[in-house]
Amino acid sequence: MKTTAKLALLIVILIVLSPLGLLLPALLKAGPAWGEWGVGELQALIGYVPRGLEKLSAIWDAPMVGYVCKGWSQKGILHLSAGYIISAVTGIGIVAAITIVLGKLLSGKK
Amino acid sequence: MHIPDGYLGPATSGFFYAAMVPVWMVCSKMVKKTLKAKQVPLLAIGAAFSFVIMMFNVPIPGGSTGHAVGGVLVAILLGPWAATIAITVALVVQALLFGDGGITAIGANCFNMAFVSVFAGYYAYRFLRIRAAANSTRTVFAAGVAAYIGINAAALCAGIEFGLQPLLYHTAAGQPLYCPYGLKVAITTMSGEHLLVFGWIEAIVTALVVKYLQKQDLELLTLNQ
C-alpha cells in the first residue's frame, strides 16, 4: 500500500475514534479549554460577563457549533458522538477539498 | 487554544489579521516555488490530520481540556510554508463551520497555531537533527522536541494575547471589556498546561508518526531537506 493511502486510512481511524475527545473529558469531569468559556460559564467563573465580550461573542452563528448536529445537543451521548463523527467527516471533507484545490493551483505542473 | 469571538478587542483582532496577510502571501509564494503536484495529496492529508487531531480533547481531570495541533509534523514533511497554509485551512473551517475559534480571532489563531508554532517547531527540528540520518533515533527525538517547542510557542503567544486585553480595554471603573484575565494568569495557565500536559501529547503524536514513516517511507523524511 502506498504511504498516502496508509496515512489516509490513519485519518479514517482517527475519525472513528474522535468521540474519545468528547467522552474522556466528560468522564474525567474536565471543563472547556482555558479561555474558551461560553458567556454562562464566564458568568459562573468571575461573577459578570465583560460587556464587549458579551456583544462580540454572538457575532457568528456557526451551523454545527461545538461539533454538534443542529438539535442534537440534548439528545444524549450517542447523538453527541454520532454528531462528532459527522462533524469530523464533514470538516475533513471540506478541509481536504480546499487544500487540494489550493495545492493544485499553487503547485502547477511541477 | 482556539480564541473565541469576544476575548480579543477589535484592534487586537485587526492587528493579527493584518499581520497574517503578508505571512499568507509569502507562504503561497514559497509553496508555489517548492510544492510538487505529487505532494498535494499529502498536503490534504496533513490538513485533515491537523483538523481531526484537534478534535481529540485531552482532559486534565477536574480541570480544563486541550489538544495537539499537528502543525510541526506537517512542516517536517512538507516544509513550514505549506504547513502554514494547511493549518490555516483547518482553522478557518473550524471557525466558520463549527464555531471552534472565533471568526474575529481567525487572524490571531492562525498567527499562533499556523505560523508561530509551525515555524518555531520546524527550525527547532532542523537544528536538532543537524547531520542526523533520516532513519536515526535522533530524528524521531528531534521531531518530538520540536513539536513540544512549537505548541508551547503558540500557547505562550495565546497567553500574551489573552492577557493584554484587560490592559488594552476596560471601562472607566477598570472592569475588563474582553478577556477578563491579565498577563500573569493567562500566561501561567496557557503555558503551564501546555508545558505540563498538552505539549507532551503533541510531542508523542509527532514522534510516533515520524517513527512510523521511518519504516514505511523514509523518503518522506528526506524530501524536505
Structural description of this entry:
The complex is a heterodimer of chains A (110) and B (225). Chain A is 63% helix and 0% strand. Chain A contains five helices and no strands. The model of chain A has no long low-confidence stretch (mean pLDDT 95). By secondary structure, chain B is an all-alpha fold. The longest helix of chain B has 34 residues, at 183-216. In chain B, a hairpin with a 5-residue loop joins strand 1 (58-59) and strand 2. At the A-B interface, helix 1, helix 2, helix 4 and helix 5 of A face helix 1, helix 2, strand 1, strand 2 and helix 4 of B.
Tag the structure with descriptive keywords.
heterodimer; A: 110 residues; mainly alpha; 5 helices; B: 225 residues; Arp2/3 complex 21 kDa subunit ARPC3; two-stranded antiparallel ribbon; 7 helices; 2 strands
Bin the strand percentage of chain A. under 5%
CATH topology of chain B, by name, is Arp2/3 complex 21 kDa subunit ARPC3
Structural class of chain A: mainly alpha
**Radius of gyration from the alpha-carbon trace of chain B, in angstroms:** 18 Å
Q: How many domains is the backbone of chain B divided into?
A: 1
Mean pLDDT of chain A: 95
- Mean pLDDT of chain B, to the nearest integer, reads 97
CATH architecture of chain B, by name, is Orthogonal Bundle
Question: Ends of chain B: how far apart?
Answer: 30 Å
How many beta strands in the DSSP annotation of chain B?
Answer: 2
Strand order across the biggest sheet of chain B? 1-2
CATH class of chain B: Mainly Alpha
Large-scale geometry of chain A:
extended
Strand segment count of chain A: 0
Order of helices and strands of chain B: HHEEHHHHH
Largest interface: A-B, 67 and 76 residues
How much beta of chain B, percentage-wise?
under 5%
Judging from the principal axes of the Cα atoms, what is the shape of chain B?
A: globular
Helix percent of chain A reads 55-70%
Describe the main β-sheet of chain A briefly: none
Structural class of chain B comes to mainly alpha
